[in-house]
Design brief:
The protein is of the alpha/beta class. The chain has helices spanning about 45-60, 100-110, 115-130, 185-190, 195-205, 210-215, 225-235, 235-260, 270-290, 310-325, and strands at about 10-15, 20-25, 30-35, 70-75, 80, 85-90, 95-100, 110-115, 135-140, 145-150, 155, 265-270, 300-305. The protein has two domains: about 1-115 and about 310-325, ATPase, nucleotide binding domain (Nucleotidyltransferase, domain 5, 2-Layer Sandwich), CATH 3.30.420.40; about 125-305, ATPase, nucleotide binding domain (Nucleotidyltransferase, domain 5, 2-Layer Sandwich). Strand 10 and strand 11 form a beta hairpin. The longest helix is centred in the C-terminal third of the chain and has 25 residues, at about 235-260. It is globular.
Length: about 325
């Protein structure tokens, strides 16, 4: 078995609500995974312990031992310093300056590498889904918030302060709704899952009729992106309009990316896109082509990722493989 030469790597997707760990073989095929809720309210040490246990469970699931693994790559939400392995600031975990790499290496006795979660997802899409083909790629991920990962000349681009890719805070409408960051009309305040749900809930409170209340009750408890898809398929014009507006703003953001960076490929991922691709992608592409400067979008592909929920763990595995190759 190939495990003797440590051909296995583990990718971890650390989110505000869940931790996902996946074990990958030498061909970057996913051979087993494990999932835990994050429980961020329990504090930093408890979360780090849960990450370590999630990794060990995934390794055990594959009948492997930690010593069979050559590295673990983690995508963490927020600003990270990959060199020191520190999570500088992760708002949805309420973390500041947490030495995640050191803590996990102590717990796992395996080399650990850290990157921003959207950078990691872009890396996963670039290497696994697109076979490392495009020289320049931007991955835009629509979920609870919105972030992006940028690949330039086949390598992750993280910028001067290592915060490149904060596309969610590109302002698209100066008179738009207030964003959690304090600005008005950010992309994230217009097209994230949070923004879409906020708009739906506000309208329902104001008396808007929607099939969602029949499906989920008057308070729309536990609403998910998939519920929006179901309502649209049943002919809910209000929900369709909200989703189409989010898609239109996403298209404008893609056009800005094309005008500014001119990547070969723009990939759209994240939970919102995964659930609502059929309702959104065509509008995103149409608006992107319309708002891109004439001629500059020629030959540029705009696609939806097929990796779905596994983009983060796949990118983590790619990171671990690259870093251990360099070591």
């Amino acid at each position: 078995m190939a495990s003797n030469n440590k051909s296995h790597v583990v990718g971890v997707d650390l989110g505000g609500t869940k931790i996902l760990a996946g074990v990958f073989d030498a061909d970057l095929s996913l051979i087993g995974k494990s999932k835990k809720s994050t429980k961020a309210k329990r504090g930093v040490e408890a979360v780090i312990d849960r990450i370590a246990r999630c990794v060990l469970d995934a390794i055990d699931e594959c009948d492997l031992k930690p010593e069979d693994v050559r590295g673990v790559g983690i995508g963490a939400p927020g600003a990270t310093d990959p060199e020191s392995g520190t999570v500088i600031f992760a708002p949805n975990l309420e973390w500041r300056d947490i030495p995640l790499k050191a803590a996990l290496e102590k717990a796992l006795k395996v080399p650990v590498f850290i990157e921003n979660d959207c950078n990691i997802q872009a890396l996963g899409v670039h290497e696994k889904e697109l076979k490392g083909g495009p020289r320049h790629l931007v991955g835009i991920f629509l979920g609870t918030g919105i972030g992006a990962g940028v690949v330039v000349n086949g390598e992750l681009y993280s910028g001067f302060n290592r915060t490149a890719g904060e596309i969610g805070h590109m302002v698209l409408d100066v008179n738009g709704p207030k964003c959690a960051c304090g600005n008005k009309g950010c992309f994230e305040a217009l097209a994230s899952r949070t923004a879409i749900f906020k708009r739906v809930l506000g309208a329902v409170k104001d008396g808007q009729k929607t099939l969602l209340t029949e499906m989920l009750g008057p308070g729309l408890k536990d609403m998910r992106s998939g519920d929006l898809r179901k309502a649209i398929k049943k002919g809910d014009k209000f929900v369709q309009k909200v989703v189409e507006d989010a898609a239109a703003f996403t298209g404008i953001a893609v056009a800005n990316v094309i005008n500014f960076l001119n990547p070969e490929v723009v990939v759209l991922g994240g939970g919102v896109m995964q659930a609502l691709e059929d309702q959104m992608l065509e509008i995103v592409v149409r608006n992107a082509r319309q708002y891109a400067m004439s001629g500059v979008d020629k030959g540029i592909q705009i696609l939806a990722s097929t990796l779905g929920d596994d983009a983060g763990i796949t990118g983590g595995a790619v990171l671990a493989r690259r870093q251990t190759r360099q070591a």
